[in-house]
Amino acid sequence: MSRQFTTNGVPGLFAESGGALRAGLVFRVGQIDEPLARRGITHLIEHLVLHRTGLTEHHYNGITAPDFTAFVTQGSADDVRTFLSGVCASLRELPIDRLPVEKEVLRTEAASRERGANAAMPIWRHGARGYGLTAYPEFGLAGLTAADLTAWTARYFVRGNAALWVSGPHLPDGLTVDLPDGERQALPPAPSVLPVTPAYFPGPPGVVVWDAVVPWENAAVVFAHLLSRELHRSLRHEGGLSYTATAGHTPRADDTVLITALADGLPAKQDAVLAGVVGVLDRLRRGDFEDAELAAAVKQRCDELVDAGEQGARVMWQAVDLLLGRAASDLGDQLARTRAVSRADVTRVAQAAFAAGLLQTPGDTEAEQAGYTAAPAASGHQVTGRAYPSLSDPAHSRAILGAEGATVVQGETVATVRFDACAAALAWPDGGRRLIGADGVQVHLEPTMFHGLAAAIPVLDQHLPAACRAEMAHRDPESIPRPRLALPTIAPPAGPAAPLRAPAALPDPGAKRAYLLNLVICVAVILAFATGTIDPAELRAPSGGHPIDNLPALLFIIALLVARSVWAIRGLLRLYRR
Amino acid sequence: MLDRFAVRLSPTAPYPQAQALVKTAAAGDWAGVRRVVDEAEPQARTRLIRLVAEHDRLGDLATRALDADPADATAAATRAVQLVHQGWRIRGDTLARYVSARRFEAFHRYLAEAERVLHAGLTRSPHDPALWTVGLVVARGLQLGLDQARYRYECLAAFDPHHLPGQSHLLQQLCPKWGGTWSAAEEFARSAARAAPDGAHSVVLIADYYLEKMLDQRNAVPWRRADVRAELAEAADRSVRHPAFRRTIGWVQVVNSFAAAFSLFGDRTGARQMFAMLGPYASEFPWVYQSDYAPAAFRRSRLRANGLSGGLPGVLPGVVDALLVAASPGIQVVRRFVTR
């Protein structure tokens, strides 16, 4: 069936099959090996290498997977020989002059790529490390230099880190794989950033996604098939809630398998879809499923294995196994193991998968009562440092730059990236910066959006570790965000508004009494003069003995008294007016 | 010599810089105004803008400057303050129910225009504390409510956390006469004063809060309480009596507030210190709370603080104060019916 061989020190695997001659060269490097700031470097190298192969008659392709990279071809024995030597020659000396063009091609490819409903799942589970990196765009593209690429190929595209596979009627002679010396590169760690599982987070409306990472075993793959069947039956066939209700599995290089389930539904029925998905997972973990369903799932898996074997597709996975130091599994052996999967095995996997599950709920639906914990959506703490108020919502939003990190506060939401846990710092030439923490939290610092931030960007740049800095291409001035102040305006009230109480001197409570007393005394004295009760002739000026019964003096006194009483009357009138 | 007898009420009198600025504005030199105003610290800038805008000789200088350069935040703030000032002059200082419907309509028209100018200014320069400060006045005049006022204040505080002109406006809004509560006003005054650095003008909010409360409830509260006096003394120690207190624009009103609070709450020593600091300079606020004619209230409090001989050399200034206080009803009559 399949046998191993060695070419120029590179382990090889040949599988006899009926179809055309196919071959591939596999390397243990992929997206999960890239630092976030250099994201896209493997893909760029793959493109450059295949460019030299040029426009040929035979079919060839490159694959940049999360954990491996493959160059594959199909054609005559000569085609395969030429292809392999061409790839190796290109890897030894990359066509650097082609760099700007391939960057453009990759940018176009990225623009046409659609983000699936499950695009955010890896970031929520792994942050910006390991398998979480697969969810990010190729941030490194603009800033990658020839030196970066050469260093990358010298480390990863080497003899010790490669494997060759061939499938077809016969193994062609004279295959040469002329690679530089180098060592096998271990897998980077893929830690989870979820503090508690099972966890959930709110996603886009109209779709429910669930995934779990469990150790790889045949029972896990059977469980994925069973889950797919149950979801389809429950949500589409019986409930009529979903168009798509399915599950799949993706093996990972670290001996685990990612099981993903997805069910869509109209936004009006999304709560029922969520309940349906959660219900199916619950039933499977309790072992509540038909034997016939399990048998059908086992049969599906076996058919899949046989099909893959006939088409020669299995051999590439076997080569990856070889590369990872695992025993290459035999088809017959694997079929036997799959058929031996029991109800207890599947139930055990279902329980493990539930415990490790991450659920993306549609919109803001709660999943607390179903046993899922909300995944942390924001950082718990802020850095201490200078605050830069937002220019669009100064009251509630601000950026804070400190010596140990940066924070953006937007209302209730706090996002913090510490410099010592910074996965990438995207740097635009216009001063815009985006920091992405190892936990996947993003802090977007736009000098146009925060008051005084532009002057602080050079200081920020000094704090940033050089390794995490990713230079970005020039931005179109139109695409630089501009602040829009949220000032709730008013329509001027029509006509007189409700009474205002303006700050004005309030009357002294004793004033009225004082005015009355003044008035009474003045009037009494005047009356006393008029009636003759007081005789001016008997009054004497305080200074001397002169009586003041002359007319001018009398008039003067009367005038003073009248003035005082007028003043008192005026004060009283004012009090009444108030 | 004359200063010992005079009381200077003009808001520009204590600040030669402001006098020069008003002259520049009266001469129609907007570039000159803007140069001086924009070089000042944020608080001083807000106060200078208000001094220029409320001066009768400004005319349409700010309007023309704004037409020439719509992005000129200083012109926008000046124009808005001018509109508010003109509107309030039409409305008058009396209680709302004595203001005729026509006057109210005009008042609101002015304020709505001020709000429009503010909007245009704030969308271009949302970081201008002077614009936010006027925004607080407009929100109060148009009765936009406490939430709106708090939002505007928070925006202001994001750019300048100890901006006394804005803080004073918010304190007014938080008082019951503008729809707030005493507890909210008290809490704001205390927290803002606590947060202010030593020697800052903002600590005066404590004194202002007690003056407001005094105006409203002079018979309802036992006023000469020891704890209030202690709080006032502590506030004065942190601001006007602190070595870091700076006589930048606005200091006269701060010291006047403390002087009024000290005299009302019976702290003669404190009041005497404040009047010694002030010399002849009085401010309209807070003395208008005690008398329609601010200098009379100022003199009366000064007389009470100093006694007839006082801390001043010679008995003469005290006697002049006493005579003028006694004559103040007559002076008021003359002011009301002759000079005005």
UniProtKB/TrEMBL annotation, chain A:
What this protein is called in its record is Peptidase M16 C-terminal domain-containing protein
Question: Which Pfam families does UniProt cross-reference here?
Answer: Peptidase_M16_C
Q: Which SUPFAM superfamilies match?
A: LuxS/MPP-like metallohydrolase
Q: Which InterPro entries match?
A: Metalloenz_LuxS/M16, Peptidase_M16_C
Residues forming the Peptidase M16 C-terminal domain are 218-300
Protein's organism: Actinoplanes cyaneus
Sorted UniProt keywords:
Membrane, Transmembrane, Transmembrane helix
Q: Which GO terms describe its molecular function?
A: metal ion binding
Transmembrane regions: 515-534, 554-573
Specify whether Transmembrane helix is a keyword of the entry: yes
UniProtKB/TrEMBL annotation, chain B:
Top-rank taxon, per record: Bacteria
> What species was this sequence derived from?
Actinoplanes cyaneus
Q: Name the chain's protein.
A: DUF4034 domain-containing protein
